[in-house]
């Protein structure tokens, strides 16, 4: 499997996400017939997987999660739907000084 950066093919998606959400970083990847949208915000990272023809396979989730976030599939919760899957990784907030 290979993740291919196809962010330049989605300028409207990138502009809308950055303008209207708390997203600070956004990349779109092709994983064969599956599209992976990876976004990063202050409090969380999200991976959204879509495929027009079939449901998302665990091997695709494991591969992208390891490559992009360095996390294991067993350590996250996957929200699944028909032909899509979403993973949210909550990041730790830095301690504020009192």
TrEMBL record:
Taxonomically, which superkingdom? Bacteria
Pfam families xrefs: DUF1827
State what protein this is by name. DUF1827 family protein
**Upper lineage ranks?**
Bacteria, Bacillati, Bacillota, Bacilli, Lactobacillales
